[in-house]
Specification:
There is one protein chain. The chain has helices at residues 14-19, 34-40, 66-77, 92-97, 112-115, 157-164, 175-183, 194-202, 230-245, 248-257; strands at residues 6-7, 42-47, 50-51, 55-57, 63-64, 81-86, 103-109, 119-127, 129-134, 149-153, 168-172, 189-193, 208-211, 219-225. By secondary structure, it is α/β, with parallel strands linked by helices. The protein has two domains: 6-126 and 220-257, Periplasmic binding protein-like II (D-Maltodextrin-Binding Protein, domain 2), CATH 3.40.190; 129-211, Periplasmic binding protein-like II (D-Maltodextrin-Binding Protein, domain 2), CATH 3.40.190.10. Helix 3 packs across helix 9 (230-245). The longest helix is centred in the last third of the chain and has 16 residues, at 230-245. The radius of gyration is 18 Å and the shape is globular.
């Protein structure tokens, strides 16, 4: 069982927000937002809808997956209904700061840079960076990526990592497009969280090989909320802790990702 995480810094640096390309939208509420959300009776949660099996749009045009299931269960335990909003990942923090939704439950990695402008509840699962090529590719090591075309999702931490390495990159809207571009040979390798790609491989959707990346370390995915909301953070964290303790979390994880990913 992972330990609860309660990151509640109140200082917001406008320069950092600008650096992240988020504009200067409202950076924090004047008062804790929990009471207003309870009065409304609805928790508005955002995700890309482009990250199966964590969040995606099914044939019935419903947003489903691990993330919406977790978000909906948290809201239920808070006595709330859920409204799911899909939006482009590269603008999702900006939308949160602009009050377009109450939280991001979309497999967002908890990073020091993000924590400068938002707060996190969780983490609610753990993963790590992974690199994949098509089976039989000549690329078998991280060092060879320097001469390759690398695919990443726009706005993810993996995009910034690839840029920092100086790689020649193509950016895409989400994982389905990323996998398709690799399969079609438009990129030589992709960088993504390990779990969703490995699940796609296990399901027989793609014939891929994973390159060992010794520098990759586990990282937690958290629920993003605006700063200055300790009551909201505490209520969401309690709901998350309780569902982990009573087996509900594991049931959701088994359904969508095939096992415990805490």
């Amino acid at each position: 069982m992972m330990k609860s995480m309660n990151i509640l810094r109140r200082s917001v640096l406008i320069g950092t927000v600008a650096m992240l390309g988020l504009g200067v939208a409202p950076l924090a509420a004047n008062a804790d937002e929990l009471a207003g959300i309870q009065e409304r009776g609805v928790l508005r949660i955002a995700m890309s809808g482009q990250y199966p099996p964590f969040n995606f749009v099914n044939e019935q045009n419903e947003v489903v997956g691990f993330d919406p299931a977790i978000g909906t269960e948290i809201a239920k335990r808070m006595g709330l209904k859920t409204e799911i909003i899909t939006t482009a990942w590269d603008g999702i923090i900006g939308g949160l700061l602009a009050n377009k939704y109450d939280a991001v439950v979309g497999s967002m990695s908890i990073t020091e840079e993000r924590d400068k402008v938002i707060d996190f509840v969780g983490p609610y699962y753990n993963t790590k960076r992974a690199i994949f090529t098509k089976t039989g590719s000549d690329i078998t090591s991280v060092a060879q990526l320097a001469d390759a075309k690398v695919g990443v999702t726009l706005g993810e931490t993996h995009e910034q990592w690839a840029r920092d390495q100086g790689y020649d990159i193509n950016t895409y809207k989400g994982l389905p497009e990323l996998l398709l571009e690799l399969d079609n040979g438009r990129v030589d390798a992709i960088v993504n969280d390990s779990i969703p790609v490995m699940l796609a491989m296990k399901a027989g959707q793609y014939d891929l090989a994973m390159i060992n990346d010794p520098a990759a370390e586990p990282i937690g995915a958290g629920i993003a909320i605006r700063e200055g909301n300790p009551d909201l953070a505490a209520a969401m964290q309690k709901a998350l802790d309780d569902m982990m303790a009573d087996g509900t979390y594991l049931a959701i994880a088994n359904e969508w990702v095939g096992g415990d990913i805490r």
